[in-house]
Protein 1
Amino acid sequence: MPLKLYFHPLASFCQKVLIALYENDTTFEPRLVDLTDPASNAAFKKIWPIGKFPVLRDEEKDRLVPESTIIIEYLAQHYPGRTQLVPADADLARQARMCDRFYDLHVHVPMQKIITDRLRPAGKNDPHGVEEAKALLRTACDMLNQDMRTKTWAMGDEFSMADCAAAPPLFYANMVMPFGDTHKNVARYLGRLVERPSYARVLKEAQPYLGLVPK
Ligand SMILES: N[C@@H](CCC(=O)N[C@@H](CS)C(=O)NCC(=O)O)C(=O)O
């Protein structure tokens, strides 16, 4: 099996890549990294000293591919399947990348900030940073609510990398800052994502760990 994925089922950026892999039934060897286990953490940092996952290893091509977006680009290029993760048309591809960036930077990062602040040791919280993150998340949801008025998926009719980027942060954002009553188009989009078989599988596999998400 040429592909190994270093990941954790609960980690939202890892889920983004899992969706892409499951969309195309891409075969890979799962390598679960437990960052709370010093041995697992140290072994992973030998592979990728930055210590953030997901990271893909392609044994056949002798390549190490970090960063969720770059992994999906790599899969689209070298292991394509029925779901075209990055559109072939250059203009559409740029728009898909722009959506991916929007979700990563303006939804995923603030959602992570809100959740990880709850894991900080007592006295080490960053209330100002969390307020900023909530404001950014609210602005992003306002914009997405407009954008998703008439669309099925982030790029319109076709599921793409942008939807892989959207599903995990929207799911967790809805847990920490519920938007069902305020952003109905985004909530309906999240409903479609949750029903998509690739993401439904990701959520099922994350289920045993969901209790670890701080309330
Ligand atoms: N830009 C990276 C972000 C990866 C990231 O933040 N991963 C989180 C898990 S969702 C992580 O590794 N957290 C552990 C840590 O920061 O120590 C990507 O897109 O892959």
Protein 2
Amino acid sequence: MGDPAQARAYAEADFSESNGLFVELFRRLHPASFAGRALDLGCGPGDIPIRIARACPAARIDAVDGAEPMLALARAAVADDADLAARIRWIGARIPSAEAMPARPYDALLSNSLLHHLADPSDLWRLAREAGRPGAAVLVMDLARPADPGAVDRVLAAHAAGAPEVLWSDFRNSLFAAYTVDEVRDQLAAAGIEGMTVGMVSDRHLAVSGILPW
Ligand SMILES: C[S@@+](CC[C@H](N)C(=O)[O-])C[C@H]1O[C@@H](n2cnc3c(N)ncnc32)[C@H](O)[C@@H]1O
């Protein structure tokens, strides 16, 4: 997603339903207004950290992405809001490098739609362990791989009919690249991360949520 046109198409798409769901899941995980420092991995054009910063007026967020065109759109989105611009730091770094967690340990680890992009999904879970303090909230949401190509077509018909070609094919590729709930459970077990809830949270998304052990 380092191509400026692709980043713009992504930023202009309407992800309000899934991004709103992410914020709702975070509020359920952290019912009191979150006032710590969060790390958002693969923040893209920034809609989720912006929504969380608005919902939690004392939160500070380090939002990391490897694609500069995405970060340029994110910076532009808060340019007119001094409060948000002061509380969200946009950080260009590759996950899982150390530059992707500059203020560790964090009080919350967030990520939406990144897991299936990583060549090795264990990178995300290792980074979560290294970046989170004991007791940190973890919320990772991603697409879930449908059972078969027919099910992929049904998700595309329900959620991407009429979408621009670049988004439609990104979405299709992502559905095939995504993991199932059972595969993510296996990833967590292999990473030694215990106590997380893993399950479907919509017809096309799974989520991992919980608190890192004290
Ligand atoms: C599908 S977008 C999701 C963006 C955002 N989280 C959202 O929900 O709208 C995935 C993002 O992950 C970023 N990304 C993928 N692999 C990465 C890596 N290894 N390091 C840093 N960013 C990465 C891409 O640049 C892209 O912005």
